[in-house]
Input
Amino acid sequence: MRDALVGLAEATPGEIAFDRYGSGAWLAGFEAKVARELGKEAAVFLPSGTLAQQIALRIWCDRGGNPTIAYHPTCHLEIHESRGYAMLHGLRALLVGSPARLMTPADVRAIADPLGAFLVELPQREIGAQLPPWDELVALCDAARATGARVHLDGARLWEAAPYYERSHAEIAALFDSVYVSFYKGLDALAGAVLAGDADFIAEARVWQHRHGGRLVTIAPLALSAEHGFDRNLSKMGAYREKAIAVAARIATIDGVDIVPNPPQTNTFHVFLRGEKETLEERAHAYARERGTFVFARLAPTPNPAMQKWEFVAGDASLEVELDEFERAVRAVVSGA
Output
């Protein structure tokens, strides 16, 4: 990263240089590269996905003259953003379906109100990174458009979802009017996101970026890190998913362990461990100190006090750990032996 930043800073002006307030040949080239990968006309690099998604929904609702949006009850906008969509943009949200399962086309057809925008998250992280079958995803988008909505993709983990569908990112993105993708999750960048869509949509998104205070004097450090992760890690998503499936199959045999979904659909799945939260965490930390295998930092509580949740995400580190070691580590955490 240091060498890349120095290289950008010392480059001949007009060839490769730091962007200034989002303008510059190098940044424009990276945005165009991501747009091509997603099969969209244009893209804008933004500091965060929160910014990207609120901008997208605001634009579509303004254009449709309807401030009503709809999405799954565990949508990031609903549970992690302090209701920014309402407080900043005056949008009204409808929650579609059950928080414990994926949305269905029938759930969408049951919406009584016309919509300005409809958001689909792929995969649905809070329920174990689940994905609908392809035909159901197509039907879901068709049902959403029948409400009058433009359809936006929360693709924070789109890169990780593509191997399940065995389709290109562009084929998946073609179902949607706009797409947000993240770089700091599966691609392991520092931070940053891209919002992609038609050229006029992205031109308007840049105005909203400025209004939100998201137009930094330079975003080169984040964008450089994002491009590095994009170039280095995008091809690994299939291997990550295969390792997640193998790990899940191995640890599912342990008493006191449940896997959701089983088998995993992406490189992420949820592990439910029987036991007290503090005890399980202490065992995991002790195992890390003694054996050098770090299982998890902390667990999330569940509605059942006897079960705790661990979100497993396969990445480079997981590829280096043998399945026998995964099983030993989880057995030690659950049993204390």
Notes: Residues 247 and 326 are 7 Å apart (CA to CA). The radius of gyration is 21 Å.
